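Hey, weird one. I pasted the PTS glucose transporter subunit IIA sequence into the form twice and got a warning about non-standard characters only the second time. First submission, copied straight from the form history:
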Amino acid sequence: MLKKLFKKTKGEEKIVAALNGKVVKLEDVPDPVFNQKMMGEGIAIEPVQGEVVSPVNGKVVQIPASKHAIGLESEQGAEILIHVGLETVALEGKGFTPHVRVGDKVSVGQSLLSFDLDFIRENASSTVTPMVITNTNTLNKQMRVAEVSDAKAGETVLITIK
């Protein structure tokens, strides 16, 4: 069954949840950079665990020194930013442990990053974690964001691009 779920369909790509938790519409993220879609189309998750997994097969293209985010490029060219929490760059890497490096190939469900959820709750403005397609405008494809309330990391399809 999982092979069918992640099988590439010509012209279609499914992006699954990177975290376990409650799904939040991007428009409801309490940060204008995300809720006004300045970075691109996407969705967010209010995490219940401190682990980020890969939502696609692809490669790691960015991990900032602050370790609070990770950038991926899918095999079909979608550029995905996973930004753990809000105002987390100010934590200067504290509470974050990357498990991959820039240039690594990754597969759906592979662990990318661990974070101390309690530490983030105490020291950041929010734990809500946006997943944004940063090249929305240049993909020239339609995107459909799923209307689900809960996400299971590595399994729940959140965004379909075709």
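That's the output from the first submission. The warning seems to come from a hidden character in my clipboard, not from the data itself. Confidence is low (pLDDT under 50) at residues 1-9.
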